[in-house]
Amino acid sequence: MGFISSHVSSHSPKTFYPVPYKMYINAETSLLVIQYNILIGIALSNGYLWKKQRKFANTHLRYFGEGQKSLEKYIEVECSFLCEAFKEEQGRPFNPHYIMTNAIGNIIFSVVFGHRFEYSDPSFRRILELDNDAVVLAGSAQTQLYDAFPGLMKYLPGPHQTVHANYREIVAFLNREIEKHQEEWNPDDPRDFTDAYLSEMEKDPRAGFNIETLLVCTLDLIEAGTESASTTLRWALVFMMNYPEIQEKVQAEIDRVVGQSRLPTLADRPNLPYTDAVIHETQRFGNIVPLGFPKMANKDSTLGGYFIPKGTAVTTILSSVLFDKNEWETPDVFNPEHFLDSEGKFRRRDAFFKFKMSLIPLNVKLFSVTNTSQRVFGS
Ligand code: HEM
Known about the structure:
This protein is an all-alpha fold. It has two domains: 18-242, CATH 1.10.630.10; 245-371, no CATH class. 52% of the residues lie in helices and 3% in strands. A two-stranded antiparallel sheet has the order 1-4. Protoporphyrin IX containing FE binds at residues 42-43, 54, 108, 220-221, 224-225, 228-229, 232, 288-289, 292-293, 316, 354, 357-360, 370, 373.
């Protein structure tokens, strides 16, 4: 399996030469770092602060993961709204992009801020569009140039300025939610992630629990959660359109196990192996985060025979694993059988570690396998 970039995957120990960390950070990331001068929150932070913030997020996303405020409940509620919105189209062709993004955004927003938005609400729709545009523009040539030469590029017009402007508006939107929470806050009755975070503030100054970090954490959760999951869902629709025979098998299994009178729940999952396999294959083949987040060794380390000096930035290339021909029977084909055994039961695959690298509250294993990263080298 390729943990690190393939152009260094030859023999015996080699050295990764340290370069300034910022040179390896992608455009979107460094725009944020430069604009807000932040290395706080979850996705962009380091060391002790990162560990504490990430642990808190994991614990509290799971805490609000039970009962009426559970993630599953929020998903269930949102599924009903989403199905209704699709029904309203009465079988006519329509673009589901922002209805789906809005639905996913609502789930994350409910956990983080305790409420959702109607699909017709222009304020949330605007935030989702700004975020989507910022992610797309972050890949533009000018933004990459800005990344390398911020001192010069900051005076020139171009998409990098739009990315800045978009994030300014998104951050202002999140800030208003946080201010409202501060006004209404009752420590005895935490309603959501933000209320729980407010209770944590000032307990451990080194861990950085303050309003500024909260703002960046909410941005991390909403941005990382919404874009990733809604893009995956859009790929799922594409695959179901392209492979109608697979779609029919999924529908038949759902009809048999769940029926038409209720929504599926997590408890149904073991009885839906084919559907589970199709979801996993969608994630593998969709490959929506081909490069993981960059990490930096915080002490001299050795990985796979390579010496990695302290301070070296390393990026995991997830595609190299998800399409590894030594791991998958038909790596370049959308094939749910990758996740099924000879009896049609769901089987886990070691080479599927997309989720173990990320922060999905439903997957309790996630923190144990981030060991290809900066944090791991030093922890
Ligand atoms: C299909 C859905 C998703 C995919 C494919 C995905 C993928 C990823 C990947 C590949 C990373 C980089 C991991 C690394 O390099 O260490 C990541 C990080 C992250 N994800 Fe996700 N993710 C998804 C959903 C979510 C959701 C729903 C949330 C929040 C509720 C979320 C929050 C985060 C955060 C905060 C990080 C940064 C973690 C850190 O740096 O410690 N993701 N995700």
